[in-house]
Every structure is written in structure tokens, then in C-alpha cells.
Known about the structure:
Chain A is of the alpha+beta class. Chain A has helices at 9-20, 32-43, 47-58, 94-103, 112-116, 130-142, 148-155, 170-174, 207-217, 226-232, 263-270, 288-298, 304-315, and strands at 30-31, 68-71, 89-92, 179-184, 186-189, 196-199, 236-241, 252-257, 277-282. Chain B has helices at 3-10, 19-25, 43-56, 66-69, 88-101, 117-129; strands at residues 15-18, 35-39, 74-79, 82-87, 103-107, 110-114. The longest helix of chain B has 14 residues, at 43-56.
Amino acid sequence: MSERSGLGAVEIAVLTALDSLGAQPGHGYVKSARVLAAVEDAIGLMPGYAYQVLLDLAQWWTVPVTLVSGQGNFGSRGNDPPAGERYTEARLSTAGAVVLAAERGATAPVPVGLINGNTYAGGRRPPLRPAGLIAAIREVSRRPNVTDEDLVVIAGPPVFATGHVGIGDLAALAAGRETDLRLEADVTVSADGREVIVEHIPAGVSIDDVAINIASRARRLPAGHPGLAQVARLPIADLRDLTDRSRHRNGRIACTPDRGTPPEEVRMRLMEVDGVYTIVRAMFPRPLAAMIRDWAAAHAAEDLPASLTALEQALTTTG
Amino acid sequence: MLWGAAIVAASGTSCLLVGSGALWLRGEPVVVHDADLVIEPGEPNLRRLRAVLESMATRPGSLPAMWRMASMDVATVATSYGKIDCLLERGRLDWRRLRESATVLAMADAGVLVAATADTWDLRRRFKERGE
Lengths: 319, 132
């Protein structure tokens, strides 16, 4: 993992390839296949794995700070897979260009690896809110005697790319212990009381799978156990996926309760359906405050305020 | 999470719950991530298992065929109740021993056979040592 950005070698190779092909922010996109060929030339990595990294870096629902701007079908929050590398195009995002400049030593380092975490790639380090982590680094740079407790408060809890805040024993997590974080969808009764709406599906869960899970739990159960059916079957008569990708990026599913079933009961029961909530096993390799403190100290001789400001500005820029 | 195990048991499939679900039902302070079921070997039982899994699976089409299940070590099935791991090899190797010390616990009006605490911890240790 790079000291200057916290990114892995393949991620850096992808950004470098984009830059070498002239795919900077504001410039034209290049075919993903060309990027992968450049990565293969540079580090010998087969295109299949590199393409997954390229996709991850471009998907807003995967990483809090997207480093690649994609054009074409880069996948979705549902089960629609991305198009092949010959049919998609990419270029550096503004944040990607900031990170690459830091990586090359043109600017001071940026803590993008700390922000993005690696849970999206099967690791256990959870993502953090960019503004929170940047504020914590600024604080410890300005006031080295700030307490660990204050640093953790400033950094805030893990916030996933979809905006979901991890719920769990955050003190244990911040202390460097393995912790299960629960991410939950919003489940509410509609204003007219006729439907229960599931929206803001958690990160790492397919919206389509949640709809399938809800429908599957509404099926009839083995006969002869009415008590089990009462508690295990979801009492809904109908389900509609109302996801309009332009308005509900994280999904919207409407459930009609069985006749006579109070919507509030359905709401409570929906909260138990796999995918309406998900559990992420998370752990920082060291206490969070120490990680922040050490990162700031390691780069104290460089112009961190400038690079952090550049990253902040990039996060407010589209593309 | 454990309702899936109760539904499998209610279907008449002979199985017993081990893993974190068994420990949790026996009052141990563990977090339950999935339901681990040791399946009694034998074709009629596997047929019942496959039928109930087909009714519960998020993707029924991805269930292994009967003939494959008979020789698989573990069949993992995603359901709306969470993941169910069917420990088929463990059933072939240890069913009788685990069955002897297991007891039935009630989940709603279904009875679920749950492995003894000592057996469950022992299995867990062996699985972790093997890196499974």
C-alpha cells in the first residue's frame, strides 16, 4: 500500500495508465480496454482483475471518493452487470488527478486510502467520511496534543459510499477491535398507510436481490406449523420495485401488507429481511486515532494543508 | 437469521443446528452471521432438503443438483433469512455422534435439533484450525 495515498499498486497503475493515455479530467475518455492493456504492460497484471479495480474506482456506490470517471455501462446497484472493457470508457476524475499528483510527489500526500477503506474489496477496514477524516488530520496537525477521543469524534463513524452510517460498537472499532457494523435501509409506512416503503438499500447489497428476498419471504411455508408461518413469513400481498435510477439511487421498493395486517407490523418484519439490513465485519489495523496521528506526523514536513484543500475541492467537483 | 433453520426443520428434513446459531440459542454471547446445519445423510433426506431450499433460495436456479449434493462438502444457499450453510460432509462423518448429544429446542411451533454446546465449540475449533 502506498504511503502517499494509501492506495494499492493496481489502483495506482490504473490511475497512471489513464494519465499516460491523456485521459485527464476535462479531456476525452479512453476505452477501458486500452487502459487495461497499459496496466498489463506496466505491471503485468491480467486485464480481468485490473478491470474490476477500474470499475470499483468509478462506482459511486462502491467507494466514497471515486478516482475514475466512467462513461458507458459501469454496472448498477442492482444485478445489471457492467459492460465489457471494450464497451466502456474512462478518464481520471478530479479527485483521481489530485491523488495521482500526490502519489508522484508533485503535491503533499492525500489520505484517500484511509477514506475509502477496503471493505468494498473484501477487506475489513471501513470507509470514513471524507470531511471528517480531513478535519481530524487538520486538527492533529494544528494541535498535536488533541486527545484520541476528540480525534475519533472529529473523524466520525464509518460512512459507506452510499451514505450509510455503520451502527455498532464504535468505541471498540475505534480502539482497533473487530466489530460488526450494521447498515440498514430506511423502512417507512407511506403517508396514506397503504404501503410500506423500503429505500436507501445498504451498500454492498443489490437492490434487485432485496426485492427478490422480500418476495421470497412472502411465500407460503411448509404446512403444519402455523406458529412458524406467523413469525417467519412476511405478511405482504404485493411488491413493486419503484426504483427510478435518476431519483432513487439507492432503490425504492413498495410492499402492500396482507389484508388486515397493520403496516407497522410489516415495517418491523421487513427490518429482519436479509439485504434490508446487512452486517459488515470491520476492523482498523490499529486504533483509529493512532492511524490519523501517525499519518499526519509522517507527512508533517510537506504541505498537507494544500493537498487536503485540493482533495476537498475535488470532492465538490463532478467528473 | 435462524428462522431459515426452523423452516428447513419444519419441512421434515433431518438436520441439526451447529455454529453460532446453536451457541446463540444455548445462551452463549456470540453474533449469528448464518445458519449452519449438519444434514443427516441419505437420499430421501437430501430430497427433502433440496425441495425446501428451492422454496427458500433467493436464486433457486443456482442450487446444486441432487446428485452433486450427495457428494458435496458444503452447500451454501442465500435466502431472505440469511445464508444457510448445509454441512453435508459433516453429516456423513459425524451425524450419529452429534445427534446423540443434541436436543430439540422450540422455535415458534417448530422443533429444531440443536447440537450440544461442547460439540459446537469443538466443531468450531476444528473448522478454524482447518481455516474453513
